[in-house]
Write a structure and sequence with these properties.
This protein has 4 helices and 4 strands. It is of the alpha+beta class. The termini are far apart.
């Protein structure tokens, strides 16, 4: 009888503690969530938003050649010639997600080899 009286309060205490520890924050105002949002915003400011496909990285003459060839093959896709010393880059498209960029990457690989998807910078 004494053991039963002791078990009941212990069970209630354990139940109430476990209920608190597994409950979720309903309004998402926890510090952890705020920290994650802050980190994501900082990342976006540093690395920009979206993706591009880089079809060439090297000398200026070849970069211009690749840029013109791309414009002829895919006239509806934006292309940019970018200079970052000491190399020239041909970057094409403007994609919000990597999945969108990967879809066009498959299409562009038929005409250009060695191309990659890159995150857009500032």
């Amino acid at each position: 009888m004494k053991n039963k009286l002791l078990v009941l309060p212990l069970t209630l205490i354990l139940f109430s503690l476990s209920n608190k520890s597994f409950s979720q924050n309903e309004d998402n105002s926890s510090q952890e969530i705020k920290n994650l949002i802050s980190k994501k915003r900082k990342f976006n400011k540093t690395y920009g938003f979206g993706y591009k496909i880089q079809i060439y990285n090297g000398r200026e003459e070849r970069a211009r050649k690749y840029s013109e060839q791309f414009k002829l093959e895919f006239p509806n896709t934006e292309s940019n010639l970018v200079y970052k010393a000491p190399e020239w880059k041909v970057q094409v498209g403007n994609y919000k997600t990597k999945l969108e960029a990967d879809k066009d990457l498959i299409l562009f690989k038929e005409k250009f080899s060695g191309i990659i998807v890159i995150p857009m910078g500032k």
